[in-house]
């Protein structure tokens, strides 16, 4: 039995939570075609890109996730994350 793309997404996120963000991101990228209209895919991708220090890609993924959001609470949460990424952090 082959797992669905959503199950594979959950497994990839689990890898990141287990301290393997690079491997997780590699798994996520393989799912893009199957999940190209699935908001949680882009939200998870943005989170990993931010963790990996790729702010530009994280911002782009968050913008897609926001566009795909179906409810205001979810959209507001993602917009808040986007604003934080766009705000320069003190060093």
Salient structural properties:
Serine Threonine Protein Phosphatase 5, Tetratricopeptide repeat, 5 helices, mainly alpha, 91 residues, globular, 71% helix
Give your account of this protein's structure.
This protein is mainly alpha-helical and 91 residues long. It has five helices and no strands. The mean pLDDT is 93. Helix 2 runs antiparallel to helix 3 and helix 3 packs antiparallel against helix 4. The protein has a single domain, classed as Serine Threonine Protein Phosphatase 5, Tetratricopeptide repeat (Alpha Horseshoe), CATH 1.25.40.10. The chain is 71% helix and 0% strand. The radius of gyration is 13 Å and the shape is globular. This is Tetratricopeptide repeat protein. InterPro entries: TPR-like_helical_dom_sf. It comes from Paraglaciecola aquimarina.
- Class by SSE composition: mainly alpha
CA-atom Rg in angstroms = 13 Å
Proportion of residues in β-strands: under 5%
Low-confidence stretches: none
Helix content: over 70%
What is the mean pLDDT? 93
Largest sheet, strands/sense/barrel: none
Number of helices: 5
* Spatial separation of the terminal alpha carbons: 49 Å
Order of helices and strands: HHHHH
Give the class-level CATH name: Mainly Alpha
Let me know the number of strands: 0
InterPro entries: TPR-like_helical_dom_sf
Organism: Paraglaciecola aquimarina
Protein name: Tetratricopeptide repeat protein
List the topology elements.
Elements: H1 5-17, H2 21-30, H3 39-51, H4 55-68, H5 72-86
Helix pairs in contact: 1-2, 2-3, 3-4, 4-5
């Amino acid at each position: 039995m082959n797992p669905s793309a959503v199950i594979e997404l959950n497994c990839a996120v689990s890898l990141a939570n287990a301290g393997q963000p690079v491997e997780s991101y590699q798994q996520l990228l393989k799912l893009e075609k199957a999940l190209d209209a699935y908001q949680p895919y882009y939200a998870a991708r943005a989170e990993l890109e931010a963790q990996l220090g790729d702010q530009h890609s994280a911002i782009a993924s968050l913008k897609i996730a926001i566009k795909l959001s179906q409810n205001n609470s979810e959209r507001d949460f993602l917009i808040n994350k986007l604003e934080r990424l766009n705000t320069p952090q003190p060093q």
